[in-house]
Amino acid sequence: MAVCIAVIAKENYPLYIRNVPTQNELKFHYTVHTSLDVVEEKISAVGKSLADQRELYLGLLYPTEDYKVYGYVTNSKVKFVIVVDSSNTSLRDNEIRSMFRKLHNSFTDVMCNPFHNPGDQIQSKAFDGIVSGMMMQTG
Amino acid sequence: MAQCVQSVQEFVQDSFVPMVAVLCSEEAERVTRKNNLSFAELLRPFCRLTSEGHIRDPNNQVLVVKNLRICVNNIVTTPNTATAALSPAQKRFLNEVVLSCQPQESAVGSVIATGEYNLNFSATTPWFEAYRENFLQSMPASDHEFLNHYLACLLVVSSTEAVPVEQFIKLSQEQHRIQHSGEYTSPKWFIPNTLKYYVLLHDMGEGDEQRADTVYEDMKQRYGSQGCYLLKINSRTLSTEKDEQIPDPWSQYLHRNSLHSQVRCVALSMRSQGSWSGSGTVGLNYIADTVSNNLDGHPLQLDSGSSSASKKATRESDNTSGGTGSHGTCLSLNDHDHIRQFIQEFTSRGLLSHIEKNIRQLNDQLVSRKGLSRSLFTATKKWFGGGKVPEKSISEPKSTFGLLYPPEAPELQIRKMADLCFLVQHYELAYNCYHTAKKDFLSDQAMLYAAGALEMAAVAAFLQAGAPRPYPAHYMDTAIQTYRDVCKNMVLAERCALLSAEILKSQGKYSEAAALLIKMTSEDSDLRSALLLEQAAHCFINMKNPMIRKFAFHMILSGHRFSKAGQKRHALRCYCQAMQVYKDRGWSLAEDHINFTIGRQSFTLRQPENAVTAFRQILTNDSRQTATQQAAFLREYLFVHKVKHSQLSLPQLPLPCIHSSVTRIYFGHERCLAEGEKQAATHVSLDQEYDQDLAAMWCNLEEQLVASANRGSIPVNFQPTQYCLNSQTDNQRHPLAVVEEPIIVEVTFRNPLKVPLALSNLSLLWKFTADSSPNDRTTPQSTVEPITNEETLATGARLRLLPHRTGQLNIVGVVYSLSETQQTIDLMVCGKQDLNIQGLRLNQTKEDKMSVKHGPDRRLDPIITPSMPLMEVFFLQFPTALLCGEIRKAYVEFCNVSSVALCGLRVVSTHPDFFTFGSQATTPVTPLTPTSAENCSAYKTLATPPQLDSVASEVLVSAEVFSQFSSVMDIPIEGGTLLPGESTQLPLWLRGPDQEGVHEINFLFYYESTEKRNKISHRVLRHTVFICASRSLSVQASASRSSVPPHHSTKEKGSSGTLVFIDVENINTSESGVREFHIIQVSSSSQHWLFVSVLSSLPDCKLGSRERAKLCFRATRCKPPRATSDTVKKYTFADLNLGNERIISSSTPCGDFFFRCRRTPALSRTSSSTKSQGTASSENKADDITNIVKKCNELDLNIIVIWKAYVVEDNKQLILEGQLHVALQSLGKEATSLAPKEEAQEMVLLKFKSELPVPVPPPSAELSQLIKTNLHYPEIYTHPFGHNSLCLVPVTLSLSNCSMALVDVLIDLQHKSNSPESEVHHSFTWVGQTQYKLQLKPQEVLALTLRACFLQAGVYNLNTPRILAKPTEQMSLSETSQQTASPALIIINKA
Fold first, then answer.
1. Helix boundaries (H) for B826-881
2. Which end of chain A is less enclosed by CB atoms within 10 A, N or C?
3. How many structural domains compose chain A?
């Protein structure tokens, strides 16, 4: 399903990046990093009008030749980015949205861990599992 | 898109300018060549009109033409087809242009601060502008547009020519031939009847001016005054006006070309410059180009070539290329003005009017044609097109992107008119025409034409000043798309995109511009892609909300393409700019990638410094790269380093990481602990972990030593000796090291990589400031073993320095060779790393707390002091396990290994009762060598026959003999000093601790140099042993007053006998093979008491496991101390041996340990007793009843039980000896050899109670023991009752005062006890005085003779007297009834 899932901290450094074809990690890093510009643009655009009831899901950030990049921003400005293969047409917006929600829930769980230091890299088996699940679904 | 020098309007205008061709006669060419310029070049700087031109449009309205520029070029007739892509040569040229235009190092980049980013980059990109300019200039002329077709032709003839007019005719014919013969496709002409402008060139230097004037007059006649011009140049002679500074306007126009030619020279080293410059000329090029056909007619050398007639000018061009430095050397400023005037004249009179005429003509044609019906119009089209409409979709590839119109096609006429209008800045008309043309072309499906029209329509719309309509951006997009996708003409698409992007940029539509530029990147040209991507990146950053990351990403993409295009410098610049965004933000993978690329590019650009820095970054980061990647990085780094630093000074290496704060430094030799039999003192070593508590303990011990060495006071400047410094020790002061003693530095490395690193040739880097001794040339040397550092393990390397001189040493860093693994030794880099240790953070003052300040850490800056003695201590036969109380003899060897004598040897220990060196006075003569003493008892013994009723042998010993009551012991070495190299061996007795378990026993040896004036006042040596003590015997003792007067020793007064019961139990539980214990001797030691005899004991006193024995002894008070030894406390030792040999308990091991063991409780007791004394004295000290009572019951008897244990070990029987001590404090109380701890606790409690003095009512039970009574009488008395009915028996009542006070005693014989049993025998009565009142002096024994009268035979209890006593001085107190002894029975027999 997803080929790359990333969690970016408020300060725009990566908290977590996983991608499925592990050999091309660098490319995904670049893709995710570049997408932050769009995320910021979207946040600033939305932030002015509807500050309080902002939709966390940002939708498609931008398409590239091979991938579609979707974004999601939590209220604490932590960004989730999901990169999906362009050829995968089965994914609807709703599915992406639910993936993000799932990711957000799992992320919240990670943050609730009293032993987790906010701002550290996410090292959680449960979170890993959720992410792997999202990536595996393609089969 | 980056900022440009030109404004958009200027740029777009200058992209499309009227083209003017030049045909020169050879002679004219020669004249211009004097200035190192061709004629076209000569004109170039003046091609922009400074004044306004005027033109009338078809409606006769005057238009102002501002700032018009014309382009003058030599005719090049190379068959240059308008290809869809740039030729390789063009590409190469553009590459060179970009390569030559590098950003200045000094150029201040603009700083953009957005949010968290501060980017520093150059806002302008001159290389891009240069590329764009050259690209647009190199655009080949194509059929679908006329903008870069020649509008006019300058025919230039020199006045020196024999017949200039003939030359003009010749040139005119030549031009006509080129345009109309059909031989040449290359220079395209705008309009069939090209404007010919005749220029007579007059050289002021050589020609006859008058002649020129006449020729000019003639020309005016012939061509009209508006069609010709006389240009006078070269009025300046080289020789005369050398000093005059003439501006050189050509340089900025020509330097690129000259550079170009230079580059070409290099590229074509096989060819001569001449043949090359000829290759661009008419007719010659075919042969020349057979050598390399990729050199076909470079469109960019339009002006570097010579005119069509300059076949012979090749020679001269040789010269020009030789002296490219200066241009226009023969031109004065006047000449410059002449040229400017000429251009002005030509443009306004000739060119503009020519254009005006043509516009009008075309307009008329079109207007007349408009009258024709549309159908006819299409019909003509059909004729001309030749049935192109149906076929266009079928076979020919050309038809896919449109059809070809014949030059006279009406659609092209519109286009032509549009182009003309455009060139003279009549943009409104141009737009209308383009728009019309576009419709026509589109309806004909002539896509190329349509795209061209669209493009120009958009540009014209943009340039229209009033802007009645918005800029049609979609025209551009359609045009680009058509060019690219339909026509496959990337060159045109690129031009269109460049224009469009520039226009969008000017309108602030950066994201559209970026998208456009990114779309234009393709695989076919790396250079173009790189440049466009870079511009796109600039677009992103120039947006209202700068998209920094997109900027960075596209910079990286651009850098990648640049590097593919061979533009290393540009690539490096791009990566560096992108780096600013990625740096230190956690995107380590990207960061690594960029750093790696930067490193590589820098390396290839011969900037090893930067390469090294970049690679350092990769390696110092805690990288998330895979091991193989890391290995690659490392290899690259090493390689770069090797190349860079082959001869330079040592570089700083990034790997491995040094934990400088955990660096440890050790002063002294590395020691081997065990040396055969000998066991060296453990001292301090780097292998030990630092322990705060231990350090404090050692410091405390050292304080004690120093205090004892300085007669009880600790010097103010005392600092504990530190042999091993680490992060926890106090490193504020410079440590002191000694000459010729090594300094060992332990540096801890950590390898952050996943690949192993090999370090070799590790050594220390130090700085040394010698103490003013200039002649001494010896310096410290460092010697180090190579080490290999495996994986991520943190490893400490120990490096040794051996100072040979005194002074100040600073250890600065480490030097080592870093290589990848052992096998690739050749790739090894030698470098250094500094050791910078940050001191502890200061937290004393408020200032310190507010800011972050760090104290100094001088760990690595030792001061080398002159040599000091160095002592080694070895232990021989030192046990590791002992039974509790076991006595063992060991030997200790002191060895002075330095060259300086030492003295003042002392030792202190945490367990002073554990060992003794013996006292000199009582040291038994034992063999000094340990070997011969193996089976010898540790005790000093005397063989005596066993006696059951043994009488104790007593020895009086002063405690002073065993002196050293402080825990510090002087070590009795001969002479007090140990000379260099000398060693001495001393016996040492050890006694197992009383507590079972493992005991850590610390020794601290102290010694000083015999020379005093040293910085180091003393040295210490530590030793730690662990002794495992296992249980042996438990001794319990209690004492009670004997009621029976001593009948054996008559000499005794008999009042103060005390019985001592000793319970001994074998509590050894271990299977260590202790078979049995023998109690061989019991000794007493006291100031007041001594054992007199054994009352009962086992025959041989053997105790098996868990067996128990009870021994009973009698003790008596010693003789009162003689007056002479009043002050000295003397202890009386009384030995009662149960075996057949007597151990002299007062001599060395036994007595020593006795006193040592006593000391521990004694010390604490004195402290508490001083307190209680203080309170007592303030109150009523003599009257204190408790005191008296206590005194009375005080015993203070110490018992030493000496035993032997038979142990079987390895089938050998060993005899172990030992002694246990029991201190009996008072009568009745039980004391034990075990659990001294509880006792200590009790004392503490007592101490606290004494704080609040509660007047304790004297316990009657204790007061009742003031007086001890004994009745002496015959046990059996036979009386003849028949003879005398009254039987009188004399009874002696002896009263002994146990207390130390006067006691009043009241004896009442008549007292009748109330007890019923006593009433049974009241058949006897005391006769004589029945009440006595006496006063007994302290310790006095008084005998009273009483008489008892019996009436009949029987058994009587004589113990009926009631004795009341009270201390005399206690007035308030009533007498207390004294405890009576057991019934004293008397048997009266009837005789």
1. 846-850
2. C
3. 1
